[in-house]
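ok so for the tutorial part 2 we go from a plain amino acid sequence to predicted structure tokens. step 1 is just haveing the sequence, like this:
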Amino acid sequence: MESRDPAQPMSPGEATQSGARPADRYGLLKHSREFLDFFWDIAKPEQETRLAATEKLLEYLRGRPKGSEMKYALKRLITGLGVGRETARPCYSLALAQLLQSFEDLPLCSILQQIQEKYDLHQVKKAMLRPALFANLFGVLALFQSGRLVKEQPRKALVDILSEVSKATLQEILPEVLKADLNIILSSPEQLELFLLAQQKVPSKLKKLVGSVNLFSDENVPRLVNVLKMAASSVKKDRKLPAIALDLLRLALKEDKFPRFWKEVVEQGLLKMQFWPASYLCFRLLGAALPLLTKEQLHLVMQGDVIRHYGEHVCTAKLPKQFKFAPEMDDYVGTFLEGCQDDPERQLAVLVAFSSVTNQGLPVTPTFWRVVRFLSPPALQGYVAWLRAMFLQPDLDSLVDFSTNNQKKAQDSSLHMPERAVFRLRKWIIFRLVSIVDSLHLEMEEALTEQVARFCLFHSFFVTKKPTSQIPETKHPFSFPLENQAREAVSSAFFSLLQTLSTQFKQAPGQTQGGQPWTYHLVQFADLLLNHSHNVTTVTPFTAQQRQAWDRMLQTLKELEAHSAEARAAAFQHLLLLVGIHLLKSPAESCDLLGDIQTCIRKSLGEKPRRSRTKTIDPQEPPWVEVLVEILLALLAQPSHLMRQVARSVFGHICSHLTPRALQLILDVLNPETSEDENDRVVVTDDSDERRLKGAEDKSEEGEDNRSSESEEESEGEESEEEERDGDVDQGFREQLMTVLQAGKALGGEDSENEEELGDEAMMALDQSLASLFAEQKLRIQARRDEKNKLQKEKALRRDFQIRVLDLVEVLVTKQPENALVLELLEPLLSIIRRSLRSSSSKQEQDLLHKTARIFTHHLCRARRYCHDLGERAGALHAQVERLVQQAGRQPDSPTALYHFNASLYLLRVLKGNTAEGCVHETQEKQKAGTDPSHMPTGPQAASCLDLNLVTRVYSTALSSFLTKRNSPLTVPMFLSLFSRHPVLCQSLLPILVQHITGPVRPRHQACLLLQKTLSMREVRSCFEDPEWKQLMGQVLAKVTENLRVLGEAQTKAQHQQALSSLELLNVLFRTCKHEKLTLDLTVLLGVLQGQQQSLQQGAHSTGSSRLHDLYWQAMKTLGVQRPKLEKKDAKEIPSATQSPISKKRKKKGFLPETKKRKKRKSEDGTPAEDGTPAATGGSQPPSMGRKKRNRTKAKVPAQANGTPTTKSPAPGAPTRSPSTPAKSPKLQKKNQKPSQVNGAPGSPTEPAGQKQHQKALPKKGVLGKSPLSALARKKARLSLVIRSPSLLQSGAKKKAQVRKAGKP
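step 2 — the prediction. this is what the tokens look like for a chain of 1305 residues:
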């Protein structure tokens, strides 16, 4: 049936008769019955009823104009336009017209769009084409009848139409649509737009009609301002530039009156209105005018009030909900720069103009501006030159500078000093230079990049003493001296630039076209500056020792060029260059570091490639790798991302030479117990001051513009400080306060009522004492607070340092997974994970935890390669496995225990994969010492280092603890992972699970759950021989049978869960036996299950019993017993005397009616049974079965239909039948009779002796035999076994084929 149209009327009782819908599709439940009845009455044929319903609907909606009723009414009326009844469509159309006329805020375009979407002629079906056509017709008719098409902007629609007609047509109809009165023309944007259209297309006709008109005269300028204001208001929601504004701009440019238009109409008119839509119109007009203006006109526009007002808007629009025009202006500028690639002068003029809009010296454009990518090479070179010139000699007069209202109100005179403006400008310029290189490093010329890099390096570390022609940077002096604060900002920007040059270039990482790194060129330039000591000097002068270190560094660089083919030589060169540049920044700290690096490099390159780690070394001198690791740790302590990358690169080349002592240096940093309690040898530096230097000036105006929010935060901070102060009051302060008050007699005793009040002098003395006491207490509180903040800051620095040191660990486990030292990382990483999981409140702790867990899980435990040369570590690893498993069992939660358990599995993998002869000898000695020879490893295990007895004992203890301990952190997936990765342990661990199947409730549930997953694993099956596997299956079956003896007697939730797990395990056991083709005796199990059927039926209505019943009958079906369907039949049976026994539902399945059934089978053997049970006839007989049903019936034992085994019949020829079993004809019963083999009963004695047996010989009693699978099926599933009882045959086509084969003579 088709779904009912929501617009079609539906009686109130129809909804209840049709039944409850699954979901409230149309939102009907939200609306009242009265509201829904309006749409009924609208579609009625009586005119009075329709009009009254429409009027009531409008009154109802006027009280709820913004509610969901309005949306539903529009949807219902639009749907009604296309209903099938012809008399209803005009009614809905008229109601829609009245609704649109009453509510003018409803946009007609939206209504028309809804009509077009619902009745799209291209998507509608062919049968619905006619109603869709009428719906479109009546929809347009409703829009016209609303009267709003004529009322809403008719001139705008007229202008749109006239802009498409030809000039001849426009010239003909112009007198009819345009009045010759100038006052009418300047009365609305539509009239003026029509005038401008005529002036553009038919100027001669317009001149005859109106005469000569000067729109930019003194008399007309105020009118133009009002017209533009109306146009701005009309596009307030659309946020676009009105076409009339752009037409006026083009007219002003055409008539050479642009300066007058811009000054008087835009700046003096619209901008002075203090009306934001008008201001946004000015901003959009500025952006749209950029491609139309000459260089002189651009200078006029970019130095006026509009661009200044735009800068104020950018500075003040900081709140999230405020409208920000900057992204729209960026689009205008980007479009302009992209469109005038052949005019670099105009490009440069616009970019310089926007960079000159400053707020007290700070430009309003961001340092990273995406529009720079559209600059042509000449314009980019000119822009970089302008930035450098403004940095050296700032021209504050050329800037369009402004101050916000809050800045003007500030009384601090230092905010208005020119030095502050110069600092803010220089800081912005240096970061703009770096961002240009960062964003355009692929397109920029190498010479321009080198200019920027040399400029940043020179002004970071050097000062000009005397200009020289050999160094161009010395030719331009500073008009304002470069302060230390500004020089620190330049130094920070330089290292950011150095990182960009070192990592992001296209040709090679950090290399120029000559093949040398950029850092190498910068070091050569620095050496040139150092050699010109008469002209240039360093900001921090070098001592003789520091200068020698610099010269030795250059000599080492030349030596490294001889080893340029080696990868580690390039890494050493990068490290040496970077530390050499840091020598310019901090000579005292970097001098000794540079010398140690040079020594390590010489020793590293001078040793043999395959040097043994056991080579004797002078104990007085540490190996070079340990010294270099200490150096790398010291470099990681610096807050430099570039230094972090260089340290990773260098460590990747030296980690193959790592010694245990060098690794211990790294672990000492990561070990929380030592790194927090002891004094670290590595001093962690902080760049918070530097960041504060960068951000203080940028955020100053934000703080001034948001005083109210800051005052609220300060008040909240004061309240929190008061709370902290109350919490910091200790008992000692209270005692001191009591002493002062008692000394001043402010606290009276028992006779205080008789004492006189304190005098003025005593009160003054008491006030002074109290003031001094509280001042001391305030100092103590502040000292404690400062100490607390200091400790928190140190902790944060330590955590950040540990995160950076983890880079070295990641490099080691990634590049050297086969190194034996990797095994030493397990417990330190686990220690970090344990601590971070306990105290992972801060973001740093979270980052540390995530990074450590990622390294531990993905790079270490899941690595494809691992150590294959343990040497003498096998014994220690066995002890570590035992320790890790024990620690996993003692953890407070499962996630922490999982990491420890996975670590033990990783060590098992390492031990299993090692084939050292010493390990094998040691393992064999342990086995000879007194172990069961049955547990001796054979095959591949005999050649590995794994001590199977020890490992089995460890995991057996863990498994027993998991099964018996109530709140064990171990979980089922952990042991499943153990069984799948190391199935050799299952021979010893599975018997433990079997023992606990009949134990207490919790161990029984966990053991059943583990066995369910384990028995289906191929890895586990491959570790057992066929007799062992069969024996294990028999043990599991016996235990499960014992559990099922109490089936249906569950009183608690735990007992119910126990029964569920036992039945689930039984079904898994059946599937496994069927897959493995095992033969098991199921006689006892069948008797137990049938014995519990009655108790199971008594609890059928308890909570959660449906799942239990499904599992029970699933097992019984496997044993050949079908689930009775009497309850389902009785539940759906309708007591009616005339109703046919064949229900409609069963007719759908293809059963024949009574008149089509065969009568021959009933006529031959229709005599009643000898035991007095009449044959089912008439209405009591069940429906006849088809051929498929009869074939399935032949394959079943008839006495098992109700779940009971067959027994000998008390009378010859009449088998016993349960009352619930449907009667069958004698002939059919004879055909279905088979010797029952489930309970061992012999065949029925009533069977004729001469009757042929059309079946193959059945297997012995209670034995599961093999099914006749094809050779291809046996080949595909070599380990696949099929469980079969005498009453269980294969399903599907194989079952039918076997029945037919058995039936042939």
